[in-house]
Amino acid sequence: MQTIHPKLLGLGLITLLLAACQPETTPVHQPETKLPELPPVPLFNGDSAYAFVAKQVAFGPRVPGTAAHKACGDWLVEKLKGYGGTVVEQNAEVTIYSGQKVPMRNIIASWQPGKKERILLFAHWDTRPMADQDPERKTGSIDGANDGGSGVGVLLEIARQLSTQAAQVGVDIFLTDVEDWGEPHGAMGIGQESYKTWCLGTQYWVKNPHVPDYKARFGILLDMVGGQDAKFAKEGWSMRYAAGVVNKVWKAAAAAGHGDRFLSEVRNHVGVDDHVFVNEGLNIPSIDIIAFDAATNAFPATWHTHADNLANIDKESLQAVGATVAQVVWTERK
After folding, report:
1. Which of 173, 172, 190 has its CA nearest to residue 182?
2. In the Cβ-directed half-sphere of 27, how many Cα atoms lie within 13 Å?
3. How many CA atoms lie less than 13 Å away from 43 in the CB half-sphere?
4. Which of 44, 251, 257, 284, by CA, is between 20 and 30 Å from 96?
5. Backbone angles phi, psi at 197, to 5 degrees
């Protein structure tokens, strides 16, 4: 057995006593870094958005190649420039499902174009040249008050607000053309070739962005957002490509006081829409805010019918969607 020298034992006891007498050290509290407060979100005006929808409808059906289409396009460019947007137009010919070539006019307006961090907001501004879903009269163009007009109306009101209060990041508003001239009897589901007959303006833009190597943090597509008492489920392709953006927008809806219209359920009811091509072609995580009819598990009853007119536009629906988008835009930090 090994013995311990008395001197070593004494030194050990002294060391223990000194350690016991040391005061306890209190961890230094690091103050939380508080982000600077953002200015209040501008108050979205549903009446103004409604007036923008009514103005589009007043031109008549905005079918590419018609006088109404050109006149409305000229007005859209004028309004966006008037609200301080730097506007780029893309004019080309695209080939529809029948083999016919039709003129395409994409309109892109940018605020703070020099900023690298950007948000993309988009909607189509053309209207369907036939009422193929109408139970009584399938011939003749439709007004497209909701299908096209409502999303554009909301974005014009966002543009008006951008002219008075800048966001922390750059904003691009893309009004895409020849979205609604897809194959009448073809399936719209991805995986079937006919889905590529839709959204021709967006398909063109994806291959030819208005600025080289265009990037955005995320994109929000608005489609059929102005119907009576419109509700919005989480669209399936949006959840597949950009679930985080969906959650951001749904959280913004609650913050804006419109969470009751943005449902928690996921519905794969959209066969194809512009956001699919933006996700796949430019890898920009993009979602679709699009109305969902719970009773029929489908698009609103006015879809591609002559009932898609101004009488079926709801200012409160425009307000709910517009206030939600505004909440997203003006709370996104640089």
Report:
1. 190
2. 3
3. 2
4. 284
5. -80, -5
Residues 206, 277: contact at Cβ < 8 Å?
A: yes
Question: Which amino acid belongs to residue 282?
Answer: L
Strand partners, 221: 122, 288
What is the rounded CA–CA span in Å between residue 322 and residue 319?
A: 5
Cβ neighbours for 1, distance < 8 A, ≥ 6 positions apart = none
What CATH superfamily classification does 41-331 receive? Zn peptidases (3.40.630.10)
Q: Tens digits of per-residue pLDDT, 81-137?
A: 999 999 999 999 999 999 999 999 999 999 999 999 999 999 999 999 999 999 999
Scan for tokens 């091509």, then name that residue: 277
Distance CA 146, CA 300 (A): 10
Give the Cβ contact number of residue 287 at 10 Å.
Answer: 27
List, for residues 209-248, the tens digit of each pLDDT value. Answer: 999 999 999 999 999 999 999 999 999 999 999 999 999 9
Distance, in Å, from the CA atom of 222 to the CA atom of 7, rounded to the nearest integer, reads 84
Q: Which of 226, 187, 198, 231 is closest to 128 using CA atoms?
A: 198
Residues 6 or more apart from 186 whose CB is under 8 A from it? 97, 192, 194, 195, 197
Is 148 in contact with 312 (CB distance < 8 Å)? no
Chain-centroid distance of CA 293 in Å reads 20
